[in-house]
Design a protein that fits this description.
The complex is a heterodimer of chains A (337) and B (362). Chain A has twelve helices and 14 strands. Chain A is an alpha/beta fold and 337 residues long. In chain A, helix 1 runs parallel beside helix 7, helix 8 crosses helix 12 and helix 9 crosses helix 10. Chain A is globular, with a radius of gyration of 20 Å. By secondary structure, chain B is an alpha/beta fold. Chain B has two domains: 313 residues, 3-Layer(aba) Sandwich (Rossmann fold); 36 residues, no CATH class. Chain B is built from 13 helices and eight strands. In chain B, the strands form two sheets. In chain B, strands 1-7-8-4-3-2 form a six-stranded parallel β-sheet, with helices on both faces. A two-stranded antiparallel ribbon of chain B has the order 5-6. Chain B is globular and about 70 Å long. Classes of the chains: A alpha/beta (337), B alpha/beta (362). The interface between A and B is large, with 40 and 44 residues.
């Protein structure tokens, strides 16, 4: 299997799905770059280079570079999705949902329901997420909990190139609006990824590591932070089971509960602020459904309740890291009641 | 059918690209001290901009948005303002900010990833840099609403680029300003490129000035490389606003001679010839020529100015590099104006966790 970066795996998937289905179009800002000027028109491919090369293969009718208006291209995608196309929208930074919130959370999410089921909204919204490259408070948030709040949306947070390809394929073929969140710090991660296309179903968690002492649930890059912590913890004789839910909506509660039933301990790692996030959601679910399994209180490892600092030194302190995860795990393991 | 509404858009230029008067020069252009002040500031801005890019390239500054080629538009806007007016810029208007009294070290701190850089010692009521596109237009309209309601003789100016004119916020701000007759001036510095998207792909209109028509406010297009034109029309617009005649829109046409930011490489999507052609009409050449023709500028003065500017910039860089990086408390200290005690435990925890010395920006 060829080695591909996270970025390349997404690019490959877009190419394959556009070749497979003429209804799939791309729409967003700066996704082609330099269209309208001669020369190397496809060299840009967005600020993070994910859509590079697509305009030359599929042309400006299927790779639509738009004026800067998130509400305009998001709303247009909703309309197009309800009329026979399957748009893949490039929102760029997930934080930009704030300027098209109505189109995503009030329109895309609710149209199928409010029109009595007559129209589905088969669109995929791709956006980068997360801190770590010093893009300051308005371009670094992890907003999966915000999207997960809305019935009607499906929310995917892939953790590796292999996962990204399978989950994006599922997203594009899905008949509902899907939010596909690409963690900035994962774009250069490499992994073996098959050339042929494949789907990974939504709502089925992936157990990355088995262990009997503590269950760690983490999304996106936090899975890797947890994995790093678990390697060090194993040397201390603590075996962690790491669960990547893949999608925060729908959520595979069954796998999480089964694991907690085995381990009796739960740590949740989430690169968000500590309130009303994915960690609190899982925590509440386990407290309700799996209280009897618990040998220790649930611990959450999150960022503090502050905006994301622009300063690189503070940004590093802001994000959950293996040391923080390790401390939380040792706390639950050492809990004496 | 009869025509019940119509519009026309006027264009103004006083100095040709060669620095020769191309129309009747307004009074301000005969005030040589004012002209020299503006030229000095434009030059300082350019020296600062060059240095900032070098700092980014050597890893001493974060991503930086250059203002190369925008000096006339930016300095011209701020030079027309009164100190107690309010400026709401986007993110590359250093010429305007320096003119308003923001320091070079503050701008460097901001791009160095330090929010303290937006805590200006000078123009306390100016808005900080605004990276989300065109949202500052609404803030300027809101500031103008406050001035109007409090009966203050003040105006607000927002600056956005051509890209921002595609955003809803831009129209919404102009519309509310028109409806409420607000003392605000909307400046569009049209540099022809919204990152990689050229102006002709952003709009079907011939000018951006005519976007004012739908809001019922006047719109004019000026040569944004001609500082006399920019300053003259901004002054006129502010005067109108102070007289209670409401808002207007000014489109200053210039060109982004640099990349969008240091994270961009515009050679991948723009033609070299286009950039080269724009270099020949850039704003410093023509005002320098005009001043030379007036007999108040020469090569010796130019050399002295460049030395002076370099020294000023170097001092600012030193100040920036020696500023200690922000402490972990700063994450919490500026989150709320009224601190909720419920967060104190978390703040203390963060301080214990991150109490290591972060060093300085250098």
């Amino acid at each position: 299997m060829p080695l591909k970066t996270f970025r390349q795996a997404i690019n490959d998937t877009l190419v394959q799905e556009m070749q497979r289905d003429v209804r799939v179009i791309l729409i967003g800002e700066d996704i082609a770059g330099g269209t309208g000027c001669e020369g190397d028109g496809d060299a840009w491919g967005g600020p993070l280079g994910v859509t590079k090369g697509l305009i030359s293969e599929f042309g400006p009718d299927r790779v639509l570079d738009t004026p800067i208006s998130e509400a305009a291209f998001m709303g247009a995608a909703v309309g197009a999705a309800m009329n026979g196309l399957r748009p893949v929208v490039d929102l760029m930074f997930n934080d930009f949902v704030s300027v098209c919130f109505d189109q995503v959370c009030n329109q895309a999410a609710k149209c199928h329901y409010m029109y009595g089921g007559q129209n589905s909204v088969p669109m995929t919204i791709r956006a980068n997420t997360g801190a770590g490259i010093s893009t300051a408070a308005q371009h670094s948030q992890s907003l999966h909990p915000v999207f997960s709040f809305f019935p009607g949306l499906k929310v995917v947070v892939p953790t590796s190139p292999y996962e990204a390809k399978g989950l994006l394929t599922t997203a594009i073929r899905d008949d509902d609006p899907v939010i596909f969140l690409e963690t900035k710090l994962l774009y250069d991660m490499e992994e073996d990824v098959p050339d042929e296309s494949y789907e990974i179903p939504f709502g089925e968690a992936n157990i990355l590591r088995e262990g009997g002492d503590v269950t760690i649930v983490a999304v996106g890059r936090m899975v890797h932070v947890a994995t790093e912590a678990s390697a060090a913890l194993a040397r201390k004789g603590i075996e962690c089971e790491i669960i990547d839910p893949r999608t925060t909506s729908p959520l595979d509660t069954e796998t999480i509960l089964e694991s907690v039933e085995e381990t009796g301990r739960l740590v949740i790692v989430d690169e968000t602020t500590p309130r009303c996030n994915f960690a609190t959601d899982v925590s509440a679910m386990v407290a309700q459904e799996g209280f009897a399994f618990l040998k220790a209180p649930i611990r959450m490892v999150t960022a503090p309740h502050t905006p994301i600092p622009f300063a690189p030194n503070l940004e590093q302190l802001y994000m959950p890291d293996p040391a923080k995860v390790s401390a939380a795990v040792q706390q639950v393991v050492g809990y004496q009641g | 059918m009869e025509t019940i509404a119509d519009f026309e858009v006027q264009y103004s230029q006083f100095l040709s690209p060669e620095g020769k008067p191309s129309a009747d020069i307004p009074a301000l252009a005969t005030d040589t001290e004012k002209l020299l002040d503006m030229y000095r500031l434009m030059t300082e801005t350019r020296v600062f901009d060059t240095k900032a890019i070098n700092l980014q390239r050597t890893g001493k500054l974060g991503t930086y948005a250059s203002c190369l080629g925008h000096e006339a538009a930016h300095v011209g806007i701020a030079a027309a303002m009164r100190p107690d007016d309010v400026l709401a810029p986007s993110y590359r208007e250093y010429g305007a900010m320096l003119c308003r009294g923001v320091t070079m070290a503050e701008i460097l701190l901001y791009w160095g990833g330090d929010e303290r850089g937006s805590d200006y010692a000078g123009p306390r009521n100016d808005f900080p840099l605004c990276v989300p596109i065109a949202t500052q237009c609404l803030h300027a309209a809101g500031a103008a609403m406050a001035f109007q309601l409090r009966g203050e003789d003040r105006c607000a100016i927002s600056i956005n680029g051509d890209g921002g004119t595609s955003e809803g916020a831009f129209y919404e701000a102009m519309n509310v300003a028109g409806a409420r007759n607000l003392p605000v001036v909307f400046m569009v510095v049209n540099n022809k490129w919204a990152i990689s998207v050229p102006i002709e792909m952003q709009t079907a209109t011939k000018t951006l000035a005519q976007k004012a028509v739908a809001a019922g406010i006047p719109g004019i297009q000026v040569d944004g490389n001609d500082i006399i034109a920019v300053r003259h029309w901004v002054e006129r617009a502010l005067q109108r606003a102070r007289n209670g005649e409401g808002a207007c829109l000014i489109e200053a046409v210039t060109y982004r001679l640099s990349d969008h930011t240091t994270a961009d490489d515009s050679s991948r999507y723009r033609k070299k010839e286009e950039v080269e052609a724009a270099r020949t009409v850039e704003p410093l050449i023509r005002i320098r020529q005009y001043l030379t023709d007036l007999g108040i500028w020469d090569e010796q003065k130019e050399a002295a100015l460049l030395d002076e500017a370099a020294a000023k910039v170097d001092a600012a860089v030193e100040q920036y590099l020696h500023t200690p990086k922000p402490d972990i408390e700063s994450m919490f200290d500026h989150m709320y104006a009224q601190w909720p005690e419920q967060l104190e435990e978390q703040r203390q925890h963060a301080i214990r966790y991150g109490s290591t010395d972060g060093g300085s920006h250098g």
